[in-house]
């Protein structure tokens, strides 16, 4: 089943390779979408793909790279739209 997830990651997740980590993990799961830093210190992610793979991706996001310290995630499940072609890091 195809799905879309809008995810916010909280903790020490900026300046610690988190966006690149997210891109690598998303591509390894065959997900499409984007990741970006927010001004309030969170990381925002929008991704689409198989729901089971998104769930596995979220498990990886909760761990993050070694230099990160994830304290929480917020996930809003949405209807799949198919609007992305790749997974990218937004500035």
Tell me what you see in this structure.
- This protein is α+β, with helices and mostly antiparallel strands.
- It has a domain at 1-44 and 57-69: Alpha-Beta Plaits, CATH 3.30.70.
- The chain has two helices and five strands; from the N terminus they run E-H-E-E-H-E-E.
- The protein has helices spanning 18-28, 51-63, and strands spanning 2-12, 32-37, 43-50, 69-78, 87-89.
- Strand 2 and strand 3 (43-50) form a beta hairpin.
- The chain is globular and about 30 Å long.
What is this structure, in a nutshell?
This protein has helices spanning 18-28, 51-63; strands spanning 2-12, 32-37, 43-50, 69-78, 87-89. It has 91 residues and is α+β, with helices and mostly antiparallel strands.
Helices and strands in order:
Elements: E1 2-12, H1 18-28, E2 32-37, E3 43-50, H2 51-63, E4 69-78, E5 87-89
Parallel strand pairs: 2-5
Antiparallel strand pairs: 1-3, 1-4, 2-3
